[in-house]
Amino acid sequence: MTRSSRQTALRNLKEVLLKRRDALRQALAGDLSSLKEMRGQPGGDTLDVALDAAHDEINSQLAELESRELARIEKALERMRNGTYGICESCGHAIEPRRLEVMPETPFCRNCMSMKEKLAKAAAR
User: Fold this and answer.
1) pLDDT for 5-63, tens place per residue?
2) Closest by alpha carbon to 15, among 72, 77, 70, 66?
3) DSSP 3-state assignment of 94?
4) Phi, psi for residue 47 in degrees, rounded to 5
5) Alpha-helical segments (H) within 40-125
6) Residues with Cβ < 8 Å from 124, sequence gap 6 or more?
């Protein structure tokens, strides 16, 4: 990959990350405000209260997932700023360009991520 094509690819990936970051920020702001609104409403019968609680739990879990993704995106943007983007945080080798296209926020190459997943599965047993 030439220097100019690498710079173009980095600019494109940065744009993707910024757009996703902004979308997540808006979604999280909406999720949190809707949770606050729902908590302020008076409860109905037992079924309504149970459904509201389940809905709150689902929204809370979605917000947690979105928050984690937002944190990964912020870290990727920081790596772009300090010049370490595209370098695996585990082994120090370059992350495959195709992997970055699919998962621009990833800090790990395919091999290191696979190893981390295997270790996590083994630890969970």
Assistant:
1) 878 888 999 999 999 999 888 887 876 666 556 555 555 577 666 667 766 777 777 77
2) 77
3) strand
4) -65, -45
5) 46-82, 97-102, 110-124
6) none
* Length of the chain, in residues: 125
Q: Give yes or no for a contact between 104 and 17, defined as CB atoms under 8 angstroms apart.
A: yes
Q: Give CA–CA dist 105/69, Å, rounded.
A: 8
pTM confidence score = 0.69
Cβ atoms of residues 105 and 76 within 8 Å: yes
Position 15, amino acid: E
Phi, psi of 111 (to 5 degrees): -65, -45
Find the helix or strand (DSSP H, E) in which 20 lies. helix 3-39
Q: How many CB atoms lie within 10 A of CB 124?
A: 6
Buried b / exposed e along 39-59 (16+ C-beta atoms within 10 A): eeeeeeeeeeeeeeeeeeeeb
DSSP state of 104: T
DSSP states of 79-91 as a string? HHHHT-TTB-TTT
